[in-house]
Amino acid sequence: MTADRRDTDVVVVGAGPAGLMLACELRLGGARVLVLDERTGPTTESRASTLHARTMEILDSRGLLAALGAPPRDARGHFGGVPLDLTLPGPHAGQWKVDQTRTEELLGDRAAELGADVRRRHRVHEVTVRPDGVEAAAEGPGGTLRVRARYLVACDGEDSTVRRLTGAEFPGRAPRRELLRADVRGLDIPDRRFQRLERGLAIAATRGGVTRVMVHEFGRPVRPGGGQPDFADVVAAWRRVTGEDIGHGTPTWVNAFHDANRQLARYRHGRVLYAGDAAHQQMPSGGQALNLGVQDAFNLGWKLAAVVRGSAGEALLDTYHDERHAVGARTLANIRAQGDLLLGGPEVEPVRALLTELVALDGVREHLAGMISGVGIRYDAAPGASPLVGARLPDAVLTTPDGAVRTTELLRGGRGLLLLPATAGARALADAALPWGAETDVVDARPAPGSGLPGDQAVLVRPDGHVAWAGDDAGGLREALGRWFGSPPTA
Ligand SMILES: Cc1cc2nc3c(=O)[nH]c(=O)nc-3n(C[C@H](O)[C@H](O)[C@H](O)COP(=O)(O)OP(=O)(O)OC[C@H]3O[C@@H](n4cnc5c(N)ncnc54)[C@H](O)[C@@H]3O)c2cc1C
């Protein structure tokens, strides 16, 4: 039975963190969006529990932090189990403990508020790509829902149905090793931060009466057939590694994750794009997986909305692949390195000892903290461009005619932003930007010394908070505006 037919601008498959963030950004950019998800609501699985600094900054730049309340924060992170202090400049440094369920609720509420049509209990099983659009069919409570859209974005997780239906190439490494995990009530065991014992690795942390244990036995490959373990498997492995019995505890969740490491060859296949775990599969080491996906969506949302509105050409969508594939490749490489450090046996001890020495050096520590937290991401910039270009706008206080304001607050509307300096050439720069008035806000801004922003140059910022251009010549500004915000209607 065909229950319904819908036309929309963008159909998003998957209402996980990536799909919901994308829906928010598409709506903010004025696109019509329909999100289809087979689940009845936010995940009930025990999954990610960490938001990193860049994701917190992103939520802040859309005014979403207040709704999160004050989650616990810990400056202590790790790189493959080697302790790593995540302290960096800015208000959001550190790991914020937010369960994935809460993140999905937050983004789901926001998407609904912004007018996204989110349909739960709809399983997409058919995708047809045509030259002028995409059709998808989903099985829902009322029968088959057929959707026609201009673009489809697959945010349907690591076992992506869309990837399978379209046959998109997903090269990489098959799982070799795994960590068994259980959330258990009624245990009284010491917390263990990456304790390396003779026979394996043991991790335990108790929060709110629930102990999360994770265990890996050195040299042991993934269990034949994969699948989820029983609590008895976790109990046995824990006993072999630590000598402790946790069998009397009550498991509330048991699973395993492995070290498969794959990335789509292309994040864009014409009118079908991929974001989040649908685009990359990785061990969730250091809590990077969810953050990477949310940041994919944040990069794609404004671009796709601009293309749908007609203000930018399709070439803008290729920058999504260029930028996020490169970030993904780098993150997956650091996760492979962490996998070896974490799950390798005594043979990795010399490398661990060396890394422990290296992270004591400030430059190394900051580099790794920037990588794990996402604040160190810098998209490719033209040779000779200001070092600001490609990096995210630092969270800094500016003096404006309306008073002091944080840079993050100026991004709330999801539009471009031109910060004008207090120089004689500022008027000419403002005039150059006039034709793009519908796309960008122009602000007279005086950065405080030490803010990381120049006082004598204009800074053009994309809606995702990354700097598109910095300089003082009107020609350069026009070129950058044209590249990122399309040709103005009057050009
Ligand atoms: C078991 C497990 C444990 C994890 N633990 C951690 C952890 O401890 N720390 C960490 O940082 N990360 C962890 N992760 C990773 C983290 O959960 C993911 O990186 C994150 O969920 C990715 O977000 P996403 O939006 O890309 O995909 P997902 O969150 O997987 O969302 C995909 C969505 O698509 C929907 N969907 C799938 N197929 C269809 C279809 N055919 N039709 C309609 N809807 C569909 C699903 O219902 C789901 O809602 C874990 C992942 C798993 C699987």
Largest sheet: 8 strands, mixed
Structural class: alpha+beta
The CATH class label of the largest domain is Alpha Beta
- Small ligands present: flavin-adenine dinucleotide
β content, as a range? 25-35%
Question: What is the CATH architecture descriptor of the largest domain?
Answer: 3-Layer(bba) Sandwich
CATH fold-level name of the largest domain? FAD/NAD(P)-binding domain
- State the shape: globular
Kindly report how far apart the N and C termini lie.
50 Å
Calculate Rg over CA atoms.
Answer: 23 Å
Which keywords apply here?
3 domains, Alpha-Beta Plaits, 12 helices, 31% helix, alpha+beta, Glutaredoxin, FAD/NAD(P)-binding domain, 491 residues, binds flavin-adenine dinucleotide
Describe the structure.
The chain has 491 residues and is α+β, with helices and mostly antiparallel strands. The chain has three domains: 2-172 and 262-373, FAD/NAD(P)-binding domain (3-Layer(bba) Sandwich), CATH 3.50.50.60; 178-258, Alpha-Beta Plaits, CATH 3.30.70; 397-485, Glutaredoxin (3-Layer(aba) Sandwich), CATH 3.40.30.120. Helix content is 31%, strand content 29%. The chain contains twelve helices and 28 strands. It has helices at 17-28, 53-61, 65-68, 100-113, 161-166, 231-242, 288-309, 315-343, 349-358, 362-373, 426-433, 474-485, and strands at residues 2-13, 33-36, 50-51, 73-74, 76-79, 82-85, 95-97, 117-119, 123-130, 133-140, 143-154, 172-173, 178-185, 192-196, 200-207, 210-217, 250-258, 261-263, 268-269, 272-274, 280-281, 397-400, 403-406, 416-420, 440-444, 446-447, 458-461, 467-471. Strands 1, 2, 8, 9, 10, 11, 19 and 20 form an eight-stranded mixed β-sheet that branches. Strands 14-15-16-13-17 form a five-stranded antiparallel β-sheet, covered by helices on one side. The radius of gyration is 23 Å and the shape is globular. The mean pLDDT is 95. Flavin-adenine dinucleotide (FAD) is lined by residues 13-19, 36-39, 45, 47-48, 50, 100, 123-124, 155-157, 161, 255, 257, 276-277, 284, 287, 289-290, 293.
